[in-house]
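Narrative progress, year one. The postdoctoral researcher (J.K.) led the effort to move from monomer predictions toward full complexes, under supervision of the PI. The following entry was the first complex the group processed end to end, covering 722 residues in total.
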Amino acid sequence: MVRWLVAAVVLCIAATPVRATEATEIGIGYLARAGIKQKLSLVELPAENDGMAGARLAVEDNNTTGKFLNQRFTLEEVRLKDGDDVAKAATALAARNGSIIADLPADDLLKAADALRDRGTLLLNAGAIDDRLREQDCRANIIHVAPTRSMLADALAQYLVWKQWKRWLFVVGSHEQDKLFADALRRAATRFGAKIVQERVFEDTGGARRTDSGVTLIQRQMPTFTQQAPAYDVLVAADESEVFAAYLPYRTWDPRPVAGSAGLVPTSWHAAQDQWGAIQIQNRFLKLNLRPMTALDMQAWTAARMIGEAASRTKSGDPKAISDFLKGPDFSMAAFKGRRLTLRDWNLQLRQPILLVDGRMVVSVSPQEGFLHQVSELDTLGVDRPETKCRL
Amino acid sequence: MKRDGMRMWRHCLLSGVAAWLATVAPAEAFIAYVSNEKSNTVTVIDTNTWTVTKTIKVGQRPRGIEFTRDAKFVFVAVGDDDSIQVIDVAKQEVVDTLPSGPDPELFALDAEGKILYVANENDNTVTIIDVEKRTRLGDIQVGVEPEGMAISPDGKTLINTSETTNMAHFIDTATRQIVANVLVDPRPRYVEFKSDNSEVWISSEIGGTVSILDPAKRVVIDKISFNIPGLRSEAIQPVGIGMTKDGKTAFVALGPANRVAVIDTATRKVTKYLLVGQRVWHMAFTPDEKYLMVTNGVSNDVSVIDVTAQKVIKTIQVGELPWGITIAAP
């Protein structure tokens, strides 16, 4: 007995085309874990349908286009609970859908990919930012839509260096993913000429994120934690676990800006992004989902739109044709980032600009001016072809 | 004899001065209206002196802008106000509003100037407006984020492009039905018919190309790419297109590449790249086709191109984020 929660079965959005011939049905699966990730800030708590809401909008968009090509897109969501077998769930979902958008932790994603290897089902990784999935653990049947930690770190480092904030006080959380983000930031500092003047670890000693008089305590704790630092320009925090970084702005001992996991944050999307026609997708998203669009929503939207784009270019619903087109040289897509998005053919990572946001506004967009590259400036973000460990 | 000689001299001198005056002074002065997307204004430029003569306050986020056929009014789409405003050219102020769908961006006016077709980005429709009665005649469902709009020289076909669907929708203006959908490269922005109706040019901002379509067969017959030494291809984003009436030369604005490409339409090859301001967007010819004016969004100015010499001769400061431009004889 597989115990998975089927939250929404098949969403047939948009008016079905009334044609003499039967429309080509193109099924897209959405595989994610149940439950939401904890955040320090109440306003950043993700909605239950974080990610899925973006995929839903993209399927609506695909169906608007599909009307003209006699193609109909469907979306089927499966949420895994603790203890559920991801391989079984992925296989069952693949029986009805030619491609699957995944928002899964790295190990789960690899299990799903290996279970689907012989079926030819394409996985689109919308959630996992681990570099290893694109490097030593890369798979030929996973396209990565989410940016990597190294892309996010490089995007931030380029801006800090451009701003001449080159001396970093570096604070790292004590959890595994905090250390991974810290590794990416250290690499970025070396690549772009920033200097980590001191590194401190913020131990997670447990405790609740929400308490009745928390602020009083934090206001004493954070200045003490950041005092007696060598001269620095910016505090860079690596805290993916959401334990401390959001407490740092305005509370550091020295008056310095904060970046990384709080303050100025690198991300693939933000509800404040309004350049390059983005206001249109923000409006569409808000109208459909009655909430602002998150980075995960955008990553899932992009993944589902890639399927739509491939289906309309190839005029086919065949999973192999779709997968071949996306991996081929003719694929490029518009996603409100001011330039075309393409795939790195050596590890199937989507090239993309990264936004730097302060929670309310988009402060900048990387790559920054002056960081040059012989192929694509977007390849100044993340692990480049000569350094890759991926063998597809 | 002497007196006659004097008279001849005087006559000669006078006609000489007249001839000299005729060559120096422009034959006709035109006015250009520029929509400034960020400052919510429209800048009026006198093409005789190349100076700004007036800045008109309009609604929020003005983009698409066009003179009426009699040049007495200017329509400007104010997207964030979900309407199209009417500027009285004599009064130089907004005098009326046309109903449109949500977030109008670009529009096309039919040959008689009676029907306006508006691309409404927010709800995937093209809205048809009766200009005289100021009423909405209907909507046509198109792809996601409709943008580019153009009517064929014979008036029979309207082409609308949709930016996320990546299609050119061919609409029969008589039946108001879509008759064909042609896929083009990502984010199609602007449509321009050749004046003899033999070709349609469509720019794809993100695809970085201009597709040439056969309007009779409704297929893509050729594609123009751009290659500027020292620039990554991602920075080349074609948007506005202008074509001379004889159909021989086309100009394409390349957005953040800060250049306008000059194309020989016979060979379909780029013959020249003209360096203009930053993020060059849309363009308009003076009615005599001596000059082409282009809007530069990021540098907040308009570049004037001498069409024959194919040279940028002037830069005029306008409002913030200039977007569209339209020119007519006052």
